Give the backbone structure.
Amino acid sequence: MMSSVPRIQVLSDSLVNRIAAGEVVERPASVVKELVENSLDAGATRVEVELIAGGRSLIRVVDDGCGMDADDALLALERHATSKISSVDDLDHIGTLGFRGEALPSIAAVSRFMVLSCSDPAKGGARVTVEGGRILGAEPAARARGTTVEVRDLFFNVPARRKFLRAPETELRHAQETLWGAALARPDVAFVLRHAKRTLIDVAAATDPSRRFKDIWRRIDRVVSFEATSGRTEVQGLLAPGSGSARPMMTFLVNGRAVRDRLLVGAVMRVIRSSGPGFGGARVVLDLRLPADEVDVNVHPAKAEVRFSRGGAVFALIERAMRQGVAASQGRVVVSELEDGPPDRGLVSEGSAGGYGELLRSRRAAGLPPLFEHPAYDDSDGNQPYSQISDASAAPGANHGAPRSGAKAGAADTPFGRLIGQYRNSFLLLEDEHGLAIVDQHVAHERVLYDRIRRQLAGEETPSQGLLTPRLIEVEEAQAAALPKVAGLLLRVGIEAELFGSNTIRISSVPLDQEPGEVDRVVEDVLDRATAFDGVPERVAVEVEEELAASLSCRGAVKVNHRLSPEEQRALLSDLLETDNPYRCPHGRPIILRLSQEEMERRLGRR
Ligand code: ADP
Ligand code: MG
């Protein structure tokens, strides 16, 4: 039987524009981005943006660029009308931000639109009004040289899209991120952002980019800067902690160009989510520089995304840089003299479990004198004055994520030395022949879990618990679409997740030792990662497995500021010894900091 396929038709312009609008215009911030880019392309020295209701009611962009005459103002609203390229050759050396000629017609197709422009005040300007893609009128109008574009009631004629717009403050945050990006990328241009009657950004043109950074962050205190390099890729960043639980405001520059990219967002969020309170509503700026042949900034019509040829390396670099930023803003000292392994690296191999402990035991058996002569450090009588730092009466069951295996009450020494106790509910203090060792309990536990999850991914049986009430999490549609690709992997670590509508995911079982709320975040991390690596299928599996192991271990691990009983502390240390490398987390972060007796004496002026 013949199916009745309708005959092919050429789509009307207004329909094409509406379809394209779906690609270019996602929310008020994307309109701001396109309009501001047009202003910059027009050579503006000052760009003013005004929003009402987060841009849902009004987006107005005013510039002092080259402007358009009456004919051009009408032409600009035609699809593929652009003044920026005219031949295929031009494609190879695009110097402008836009060139597709899609933005204005797309935006005008889904809003009540007005452009008022003038290229030569002597000849007068023109005003063109459009509603839902239909040109309502074009008339002469006076204006100084430059252009004003007004976009009202975005998506008024596409209710399905309008429904997806978030609360005004969320939309405003996105728009603000966008404008920050433009402002940082172009310090030579003055920018203003007003919302209702509030001025959120007001920066004068500056010749020096670092001056622009300062201007934008002027009213924010506690800003820390950080940087990291890997090969020819380098990243510089700024971080200002916030308060509350809002998503951080993130601005990214890639080779001087403001972009929005899932991989970058993912790397930042990964660190923020594991950094405890104080980073909700934080502000992050990352300035990434890498060789031009390792990045493609033009994969998306709205140029919001970039594609990295070595996405994994970029992700790791940003994560490393961000961790430094977080550490710095929490006032943690970044210690440069970290050791990679036990002091006598030549004698022991890090990989051999028990090797280090054995070495220590044999030394003790050989009757080496204790290095610490102060009675408080004398381990000869088994009396540990400092063990009171941690309290054995800590409620047992309170530590859901704490390691349990191998806990032996009373055993005084550990593979890493004698346990002095827990410092600030965050670090384990130990002493050995060489001095003091400080173990980061969170990273140590993360290492333990990571190795275990890796074994589960490789086929080891995983215990999991069904949830009485399945959890429903709301995600972006792109994330939901990636679920089928990762569901099998999640199942191997004990997470049963399935689609439940177009942007909801239902989680019906979670790993035994995980808090269900944390599992939500793990699923989000993994989906972020899967979508970020869309289009590089051969890499997806590897990257997603890594993300899963990293995210699950980070979220499952005991946090800092969490009291551990002495038994739990010792169990953690002996589990740590069994891992592939007890001295480094899988991503290179040190787990143990050593302060040698020699160093201590030198700093105290004894040497
Ligand atoms: P594109 O930026 O890809 O060329 P747009 O649809 O964004 O496409 O804009 C179409 C054309 O309208 C531009 O090529 C430019 O000639 C003109 N134009 C748009 N905005 C401005 C502006 N603010 N100032 C001057 N000309 C503009
Ligand atoms: Mg444009």
